[in-house]
Amino acid sequence: MNATVGEVNRLDKLVELKLIDCERCVEVPTLGHLPMLKILKLKGLRNVRLIGPWFYYPPSGINELGRSDRPPFPSLERFILKDMTNLAYWIDIFTNNGSKVVNPFPRLEFLKIRNCPNMSIIPDHDFPSLKKLEIDGVETGGQLLDKICSNNLSSLTDLSLEDVSDLTYLPERLLYDNRHLTYLRIIACPSLTHLELLRHNLQSLEQIYISSCNKLKSLRILIGGDDDVSVSSLRELTVASCQELTYF
């Protein structure tokens, strides 16, 4: 593969693709047209700063994409971005006439963004099938979480946030819309001062793990009571190394 962008051709049977420690790569290849790709891992591509429209389809096909019945990445279920230390932007795809392409990643269930400290922009996608989301080592991960949750995300069952410097709260929309959220983990988020799990539809929440949030002062969880707003299914609650916690 060239160090510059290129379309992966004649790989229609490809199910899993991993690009690891290809440090000379400056652009990711075009992959969105692969009909059977289910697992994609991009790790250690340290010279990639932008994931742009060509990631979904080649420029020659973008205009046709707007009229296509098949969205980009039609079968992708797992997408991992890891150790992309210079990656700053993962942006939307538009057709040549400026129309936004609807519903890439219709089957994506697992999205992991880890050790991408400079990433500040994520595309405005719906992610209608997303069940597990992990954000770890992203300084503006709180903004990314806000963006993901602003697009009708309602399928989430597992959320893990670690070393997210700007996380000050959990988006209300995430808590209200994801009634099947089962596991919640928040680790080493230094800006988080208050966490409230009240008045939300969290009947499925079974495990909460909070650790090393050094400025967390208040944790409020309604256990029992009205089933419509309590975390009545909670089985395990762990709070560790939160030295400033004074209200529980």
TrEMBL record:
Listed SUPFAM superfamilies: L domain-like
Protein name in the entry: Uncharacterized protein
GO biological process, one term: defense response
Keywords tagged on the record: Plant defense
InterPro entries: LRR_dom_sf (IPR032675)
Gene3D superfamilies: Ribonuclease Inhibitor
